[in-house]
Structure formats: structure tokens, C-alpha cells
């Protein structure tokens, strides 16, 4: 039987796109407390089912697939530009295909404005009107209002008219930044992207006997299984290590590992992979906030996903990508790398920031390990024991030296020099991952 929290999420998912919802309404209709309703609405926001806008409320929006995540809704635009909705609230759930800056003559402006666009313009009332008639929403910059005629048209066409105090250039920059951030999010693998869903997951009930574990083991050749109660709530995990020395008639609940480590659907694959390595586990259950099992991931799933992602072309650059792009190998037969300090990598004093410095140390050490054993690695510990400021536009040389390497771990010493003088030293310890 579904919990109240799950019932609310199912109720929200069945609401028509564009429907306005509130804590009070859900609490009344489903006869739950307002606290329960509030928590479920927040969970729905995480699942991209709803969007909350200040002074407007919470609106049911269409869940975006990963491939369309960079397409913003008008509701998201309102939040990005700290805007006020002047009309057309019923269309806030719609997505925009592109935005047009209205910095030209009216006729020229309309040639570029099409259905599904967002026209960014100041207090040019005719432009507002023509844009709505063309099927485009309007973002009024400079804190200006819209005419009553435009507000009525917005409501009639269900196309939002939004006002913001920012100027046109700032607004365009903010929206571009948001789209760019969405592109980066699109590339980050989450558990929901690789999850083995519940209907395909082999699991045991806490009331099963160990003989049932052996049957499942022979049937699937899996060494571990999640254990649930009669309501589908995760209560433990059982592996071959747990059943050793126990008879076939003993109950699973007596020998299973209780309160196992879990992750959520929104956990990144990289974070889950590191957790599995540090804890020495091969199977990780995925559960929601109420502890209900959603599926499982294996260590093989995680490694395969990370290796596949590394071969994909980049669409949006993170600061790590920018730092990597500044690193060049000195020669084919040497591990030493050169790195140029650019403005994005500096602190308030114009010298390389600690974050950028740490990143170049990790990248250099990782590159050295790859040339040695071709294995993937995960940083376990880093100790920076000497550091001098390195100024903007300087090109430093980074020399990693592998001090010790075994089947499972490695230690790398990294030396950073500028003008043949040492400006940094660090010792890094890595866990090596089997493919």
C-alpha cells in the first residue's frame, strides 16, 4: 500500500499540466497534514513535476526528459530574472524554443519573433501586442509595466507577460547562463539514468528463508539481494557473506545486514561509485525518502556508465573542463605537463586559486597513473605540503612521480615549478578501480 507521501506524488503527477496547486488544497483533498503536503510538493519539485514561483504559486509543469533539459519553461524564466507575472499565468508551464532581443525596428523585430519564442524588450507596447499575436511570450525589462490590452491578450492566448527590473543585456546574460548550466546538468549522470528498475530487480522478503536466497542465487548468479517488508520498504540487504554458516530454514531477517547504505534517484553516479569503493560493496539499493525500494545499481553499472560518459563530447564546460584545456604534455615520452593560469582560475589577489591548484595536481597525478596501468582511479586523500602564489598568465610545469603502486592503490608525489623554482608540492593517494 502506498504511503501518504507517495499518494500525493501520484496525485500531482495525474494533474493536468498548467494546473495550480497549493499545500492547503492538497492537505484538504487528500486529508493529510499540511506538513506532509509541503514535503511532497518539495519532492515533486526535485522530480521536475512542479515549479514554484514567488507571488504566483506552484504550477504543474511537464516533466522534461534529459535530452530536452536545456529547454526552459516560462516559469523557470520568472525565477531566473526575479520577475513578476503581469498576465498569461495559465501559460507559465510552456517551454520556450528561443529568445529574441527586441533592439530593432518593430517590423524587423516581428520578422524574428515566432510562436514559442520569448521577446525581451522594454516599454514598447505595440511590440508586446504583436509578439503575443505571433504566439510569443514577452519579458519586459527595466521594471516597466504592460498595458491593460496586452494583459488581456496574454490571458486570452495563455502566453506569459513578465516584468523584471533588470536591463535587456543583463537578462539575456542570465538566461544564457541558465541554459548553459542546464547543458552541464544534462551531462552529469544521475542514478535515475542507470537504475535497474524495481520490476527488473531480484529481491527477497524479510520472511523468506535462506533456502530462497540459494534459489535466487542459482537462478540469477547474483551474490546479493535487497530485502523488503510486505509494504515494499527496504529493510536490509543479504549477500553470500551473510548466509555462510546458516541453515536453509533460517529466516532472512535474522541474518541480513540491516539499515543498508542507500542512495536516491538524484545522487550522481560518481558519488555513488565512490561510496561503493570506500565501503567495499558491489550492490547499492536505491530508495526514496520514505525508504521504499526503487531499484538497485551494481558496481559494474557505475563503472560502465562513467567510462561511457568520458567518451561523450562535451556540450557545456565546467571549471574542471576549462582547467583541463589549459594543460599540455611537454613531450610524448615525459609525464610532465605545462599549465597556463588564466583569469577564471585566479583568486581576488590575482594568483591561482586553491581550487584550481588542487585540480591541476589531481589531473596530473591521474594522467601519470593512466600511463602506468591504464586503470581508472578515484582520489582518496591529498596533502598539499608546500604552496607559493602563482600569478596570472604564468605557465607552470607539473611533474608527477609515482612513489608506490599496488593492485588496489597508488601514491603520487606532484611537484609544481615556475622559472625553475618550486612553487608547490603535494602527495596524493588514489584507489585504483578494476574495469
Topology at a glance:
Layout: H1 4-14, E1 20-21, H2 23-30, H3 34-46, E2 50-53, E3 57-60, H4 74-80, E4 84-87, E5 98-101, H5 106-112, E6 117-121, H6 125-133, E7 137-140, H7 148-157, E8 161-163, H8 168-187, H9 191-194, E9 196-197, E10 204-205, H10 210-220, E11 224-228, E12 234-239, H11 240-243, H12 252-255, E13 257-258, H13 269-279, E14 283-287, E15 293-298, H14 299-310, H15 319-325, E16 327-329, E17 337-340, H16 354-373, E18 376-387, E19 395-405, E20 409-418, E21 421-433
Parallel strand pairs: 5-6, 6-7, 7-8, 10-11
Antiparallel strand pairs: 1-3, 2-3, 4-8, 9-15, 11-12, 12-13, 14-15, 16-17, 17-19, 18-21, 19-20, 20-21
Helix pairs in contact: 1-3, 2-3, 6-7, 13-14, 15-16
Nutshell version of this structure?
With 435 residues, this protein is an alpha+beta fold.
Number of helical regions? 16
Task: Give me the secondary-structure category.
Answer: alpha+beta
Summarize the amount of helix as a percent range. 25-40%
Lateral strand order in the biggest sheet: 16-17-19-20-21-18
Which CATH first-tier class of the largest domain would you pick? Alpha Beta
How many strands in all? 21
Radius of gyration: 28 Å
Q: Would you tell me the overall average pLDDT?
A: 85
Q: Separation of termini?
A: 40 Å
Question: Which band does the percent of strand residues land in?
Answer: 25-35%
Low-confidence stretches: none
CATH architecture of the largest domain: Roll
Question: How many domains make up the 3D coordinates?
Answer: 4
Major pleated sheet = 6 strands, antiparallel
Global morphology: flat
Name the CATH homologous superfamily of the largest domain: CBS-domain
Write down the CATH topology of the largest domain: CBS-domain
Pfam families: 4HBT, CBS, DRTGG
Keywords: CBS domain
Protein name: Putative transcriptional regulator
InterPro entries: CBS_dom, CBS_dom_sf, Diverse_CBS-Domain, DRTGG, HotDog_dom_sf, Ser_kin/Pase_Hpr-like_N_sf, Thioestr_dom, WH-like_DNA-bd_sf
Amino acid at each position: 500500500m502506498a504511503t501518504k507521501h507517495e499518494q500525493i506524488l501520484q496525485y500531482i503527477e495525474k494533474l493536468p499540466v498548467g494546473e495550480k496547486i497549493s499545500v492547503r488544497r492538497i492537505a484538504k483533498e487528500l486529508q493529510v497534514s499540511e506538513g506532509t503536503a509541503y514535503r511532497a510538493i518539495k519532492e515533486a519539485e526535485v522530480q521536475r513535476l512542479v515549479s514554484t514561483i514567488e507571488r504566483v504559486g506552484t504550477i504543474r509543469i511537464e516533466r522534461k526528459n534529459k535530452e530536452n533539459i536545456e529547454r526552459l519553461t516560462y516559469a523557470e524564466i520568472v525565477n531566473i530574472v526575479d520577475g513578476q507575472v503581469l498576465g498569461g499565468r495559465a501559460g507559465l508551464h510552456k517551454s520556450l524554443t528561443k529568445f529574441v532581443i527586441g533592439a530593432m525596428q518593430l517590423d524587423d523585430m516581428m520578422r524574428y519573433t515566432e510562436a514559442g519564442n520569448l521577446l525581451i524588450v522594454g516599454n514598447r507596447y505595440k511590440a508586446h501586442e504583436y509578439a503575443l499575436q505571433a504566439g510569443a511570450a514577452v519579458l519586459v525589462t527595466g521594471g516597466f509595466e504592460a498595458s491593460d490590452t496586452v494583459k488581456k491578450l496574454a490571458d486570452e492566448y495563455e502566453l506569459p507577460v513578465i516584468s523584471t527590473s533588470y536591463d535587456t543585456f543583463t537578462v539575456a546574460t542570465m538566461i544564457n547562463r541558465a541554459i548553459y548550466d542546464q547543458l552541464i546538468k544534462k551531462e552529469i549522470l544521475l542514478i535515475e539514468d542507470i537504475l535497474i528498475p524495481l520490476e527488473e530487480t531480484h529481491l527477497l522478503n524479510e520472511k523468506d528463508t535462506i533456502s530462497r536466497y540459494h534459489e535466487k542465487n542459482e537462478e540469477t548468479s547474483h551474490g546479493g539481494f535487497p530485502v523488503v517488508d510486505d509494504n515494499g520498504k527496504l529493510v536490509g540487504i543479504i549477500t553470500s557473506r551473510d548466509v555462510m554458516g546458516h541453515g536453509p530454514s533460517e529466516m532472512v531477517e535474522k541474518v541480513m545486514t540491516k539499515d543498508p547504505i542507500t542512495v536516491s534517484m538524484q545522487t550522481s553516479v560518481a558519488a555513488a561509485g565512490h561510496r561503493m569503493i570506500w565501503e567495499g560493496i558491489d550492490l547499492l539499493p536505491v530508495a526514496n525518502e520514505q525508504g521504499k525500494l526503487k531499484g538497485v545499481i551494481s558496481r559494474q553499472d557505475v563503472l560502465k556508465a562513467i567510462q561511457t560518459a568520458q567518451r561523450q563530447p562535451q556540450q557545456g564546460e565546467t571549471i574542471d573542463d576549462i582547467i583541463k584545456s589549459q594543460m599540455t604534455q611537454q613531450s610524448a615520452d615525459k609525464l610532465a605537463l605545462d599549465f597556463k593560469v588564466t583569469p577564471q582560475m585566479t583568486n581576488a589577489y590575482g594568483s591561482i586559486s586553491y581550487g584550481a591548484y588542487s585540480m591541476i595536481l589531481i589531473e596530473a597525478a591521474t594522467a601519470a597513473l593512466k600511463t602506468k596501468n591504464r586503470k581508472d582511479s578515484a582520489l582518496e586523500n591529498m596533502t598539499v605540503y608546500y604552496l607559493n602564489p602563482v600569478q596570472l598568465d604564468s605557465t607552470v610545469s607539473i611533474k608527477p612521480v609515482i612513489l608506490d603502486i599496488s593492485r588496489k592503490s597508488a601514491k603520487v608525489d606532484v611537484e609544481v615549478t615556475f622559472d625553475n623554482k618550486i612553487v608547490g608540492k603535494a602527495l596524493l593517494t588514489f584507489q585504483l578501480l578494476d574495469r
